[in-house]
Structures are given as C-alpha cells and as structure tokens.
Amino acid sequence: MTRRWHRSVWPLIGVLLFPLVLSPLAAEEDYTVLFGAKYAEAEKFLRQNSWIAKSLRLPPQETRIALAVVFPEIIRFKALEDKVQVRALKVLYVQYGRKYADFSVGHFQMKPTFAEQIERDYNRLFSTEEKTAAEIAPFETGDSSRLRKERVLRLDDLHWQARYLRLLMMVMDKLYGKLTFASDLEKLRFYATAYNSGYASGEKAVRKRMGIRRFHIQWLFAKTYYNYADVSVFYYSRNVSPLRTH
C-alpha cells in the first residue's frame, strides 16, 4: 500500500513524493518489462502458493479479482522485503500505537491501520450467524499494546494475510455490493484502487483516485509512479481468458 505521512509534513512530502499524474490506458504499458524479474517473482510466488486462492473460500471469479487486487503489492514486497526500517516501526507501533502505524507488512503489504479497519468493519457489519458461517471469530476490541502486538503477529503470518484479504472481499461486498459495474475489469479497478488508497473513504473518493498514478516500488523518493489498478488489470488480463463482462 502506498505510504502515508504525518499530517505536519504531508503538504511538502505530498508534492515531492506523490505527484498526481493521470494514468494512460493500461494496454500502453507492459509491466512484465517495466518490473522485470520482480514481476516474474510475484507470479511465481502465487503459483507456488496456490493454497492462498483456495483459502479465500470465494467464488472463482471473486478469487481471481482478489488475487489481482493484491498482485501489485507482491511485486512491491519483492522489491522492499525485510527492510530494517519496517522491523523498527513494528516495535514503535506495538509500544506507542496508531501514530506509528504507517508501514506495510508482508507479501500483500498490509498496514496495521488497514487491519484495524477490517477488524472493526467485520465486527460491526456481520451478524453472529455470518461470523459463524465464515469461521472467523469476532476481533477483540481496544487499543492496548497486547492487541497491537497480536495484530502485528497476524500481519507477519501469510495465512493471516490471506484471511485479511478474504475479509476485505467480504467487507467490500457489504459496503459496495449494490454498485453496478460495466464489467469485471471495472469492478477490479474499483476494488484495487479501494485496497491501495483506502476502501472506507467511500465510492466517490475511490472512483476519483482510479485514474491516478501513485504506486511505486521504491522505499523513498520514487522517480517513477504507476497506476495501481492498471497493474492489477494487466495481471488479471494475462491470467483470465476470455475476459468476462456482466
């Protein structure tokens, strides 16, 4: 997920690091060339971990969309994995809380703030019966260091990242299930943008961000930015044929 910065430095950092460049058509860019070995490694990761798709327990088309949603983050993880800075930020988050939660963890580059939001939404949007059917217990509420530590341990666990991805798809269906999309590609663009930029911001905000380049694979001071949804659609299009439309 794209990094966010402390409110006091956002105006300057936003200008330097996140130029809002409108994205051209995805077909104009070949991400297998642009990302090179990192793209191939991300594809290999999903092939070698086919259990992830099964663990989502979603219909086949929803599973394809879910994997495409997180695919750009797998590329980014391969470029940034095991940064010392991330390990230090985990400690700060556990000790001091949300103001130190602006870092991404694991293959799907999930932030503690994302996990917190998903946990709250799962608790409030799903009935006891739905939680039982999903076989995922409600999350304990609160903001203690113990709960933050447990959340970081979950984010460090690939099986739990897959579970958070499943919960994302479930929550998105609750929040946006009544929206009409012209095609599966449009739905994927919406879901990918929501995942990358914040799904809880609402339909209007998500759609406004769909054409913006803000994704990069550098730790800091990126020189090249990509449209996150374009990368998701590119991966999806190479792995789903023919493309379905509603």
- Shape descriptor: globular
N- and C-termini, Cα separation: 29 Å
Side by side, the strands of the main sheet go 1-2
Q: Total domains, how many?
A: 1
Instruction: Tell me the radius of gyration.
Output: 17 Å
Average pLDDT, rounded to a whole number, is 87
Series of H and E elements: HEHHHHHHHHHHHEH
What is the tally of beta strands? 2
Largest sheet: 2 strands, antiparallel
Provide the structure class: mainly alpha
Low-confidence stretches: 2-27, 242-246
Fraction of residues in helices?
Answer: 55-70%
Strand content: under 5%
How many DSSP helices?
Answer: 13
Brief summary of the model shown:
The protein is an all-alpha fold and 246 residues long. It has 13 helices and 2 strands; from the N terminus they run αβαααααααααααβα.
